[in-house]
Write a structure and sequence with these properties.
This protein is an alpha/beta fold. It has six helices and nine strands. It has a five-stranded mixed β-sheet with strand order 2-1-3-5-4, sandwiched between helices. It starts with a helix and ends in a 6-residue tail after the last helix. It binds zinc ion (ZN). The site of zinc ion (ZN) has 3 residues, from helix 5.
Length: 257
């Protein structure tokens, strides 16, 4: 008897999670209403300079993301004026769980569950409506590291973790990383070679038909870099030099006439 009840409860929880994921999927793929995205800034390395930078953030620092989504969505026939709205939430004190670099499939599954739990509990801000998608942005003092750790965006749970540089000159490239992870939460896949970071041809190219092919003037958002030659590539400075390619547009359902 009790065993059956326990199994029933477990099935109910699983069904609840599945329904929730399904509803999230519908909400993020319809493009009929503005998607609310919450930015949750965090001091990623505990330095006073990262804190100072985080204290000075305003919602205007993220305006480039809204402009980018509107411009690109309209190219693919999305009709709503503002497909993505970005809100800045107060700085949190707790850092999200870290994905161990050597994590296998089980480790990744466990980490993503912990991250979803963290996102559900670390983002309750009184009086403010919760956003549909939550992006934690961990700021690091650039002098403490050359490259920031890998960022992540999860479609299940609609949550992203972005590592960014705490420097005014990096606002543009930080927004590229945020937009990239946001795209992942919407179902887009990477379009660069995993080992080298090289943009994949043709879907990781902004203009795969361009003659001559190199250098590419723009970058595709899920490649993140523009190819300068066959083996050279660089990250653009801001989202104005980034586009959404047809493959990515299809993945996030920007295919409505
Ligand atoms: Zn990615």
């Amino acid at each position: 008897m009790w065993k059956n009840i326990r199994i029933l409860l477990l099935l109910l929880v699983l069904a609840g999670v599945a329904i929730h994921t399904w509803l999230d999927r519908i909400a993020t793929h319809s493009w009929k209403e503005t998607l609310w995205v919450g930015i949750y800034p965090l001091n990623g390395d505990g330095t006073p300079s990262a804190q100072h930078y985080t204290d000075g953030l305003t919602v205007k620092d993220f305006a480039g993301i809204e402009t980018f989504f509107a411009r690109e969505a309209h190219r693919y026939g999305v009709r709503i004026e503002q497909p993505v709205h970005v809100e800045l939430y107060p700085q949190g004190s707790e850092l999200p769980p870290v994905l161990p670099p050597d994590a296998g499939p089980l480790g990744i599954a466990w980490w993503s569950l912990k991250l979803r739990w963290f996102a559900a509990h670390a983002t309750q801000v009184p009086v403010r409506a919760p956003p549909r998608i939550r992006i934690f942005v961990l700021y690091h003092d650039p002098s403490t590291l050359d490259t920031v750790p890998d960022s992540h965006g999860l479609q299940k749970g609609l949550v992203g973790v972005v590592h960014a540089f705490a420097q005014p000159g990096m606002v543009g490239s930080n927004n590229i990383v945020i937009a990239h992870e946001l795209m992942h939460t919407l179902g887009a896949s990477d379009k660069y070679a995993p080992g080298t970071g090289e943009p994949l041809y043709p879907m990781g190219f902004a203009e795969p038909e361009r003659q001559p092919l190199y250098p590419q003037a723009l970058a595709e958002i899920m490649a993140g870099r523009r190819a300068l030659s066959e083996h050279e590539f660089e990250m653009p400075q801001a989202l104005r030099d980034v586009v959404v390619g047809p493959a990515t547009a299809l993945e996030i359902h920007w295919n409505h006439p």
